[in-house]
Amino acid sequence: MKREDIYYEAMLTRDARFDGKFFLGVKTTGIYCRPICPAKPKRENVELFQNRLEAENAGYRPCLRCRPESAPLSPVWIVKTAVVRRALKILNSAETIEFDEDKFANLFGVTASHLRRLFIE
């Protein structure tokens, strides 16, 4: 089985193991997606890319549904996990936990609701 066939099958099944490993450009819309995107373009309308920069250089714009610019191993994804790691480090080192949620989130330059979202993700 060819690599293109494996990637297309991964896109059809929305296989999360391939998320961030490749991107799909949809020729008919000019949009590029992650393999986990709910969009299901026809095979003949798909162009494969190894990274998001290749897709953008080919003239594609990011999908608003799957947000390929925040795929695993992207700069956005790394920043999110770094904030959570730093917060966990502080929480684990604290002997007692009595603090204001907003002040704690402010230590990381985010709002309390955004920090909650990062933890949930």
What's this, in brief?
Helix content is 42%, strand content 11%. The chain is of the alpha+beta class and 121 residues long. It has 2 domains: 3-67, DNA Methylphosphotriester Repair Domain, CATH 3.40.10; 75-120, no CATH class.
Could you tell me the strand content as a percent range?
Answer: 5-15%
Give the biggest beta sheet: 4 strands, mixed
CATH topology of the largest domain: the name is: DNA Methylphosphotriester Repair Domain
State mean pLDDT (0 to 100 scale). Answer: 82
Q: What order do the helices and strands follow?
A: HEEEHEHHH
CATH superfamily of the largest domain: DNA Methylphosphotriester Repair Domain
Contiguous helical run count: 5
Number of strands: 4
Number of domains: 2
Shape assignment: elongated
Please tell me how large the radius of gyration is: 18 Å
Ordered list of secondary-structure elements with their pairings:
Layout (H helix, E strand, L loop, with lengths): L2 H11 L9 E4 L4 E3 L12 E4 L2 H6 L3 E2 L12 H19 L7 H6 L5 H9 L1
Parallel strand pairs: 2-4
Antiparallel strand pairs: 1-2, 1-3
Architecture overview:
The chain is 42% helix and 11% strand. It is α+β, with helices and mostly antiparallel strands. The protein folds into two domains: 3-67, 3-Layer(aba) Sandwich (DNA Methylphosphotriester Repair Domain); 75-120, no CATH class. The protein has a four-stranded mixed sheet with strand order 3-1-2-4. A hairpin with a 4-residue loop joins strand 1 and strand 2. The mean pLDDT is 82.
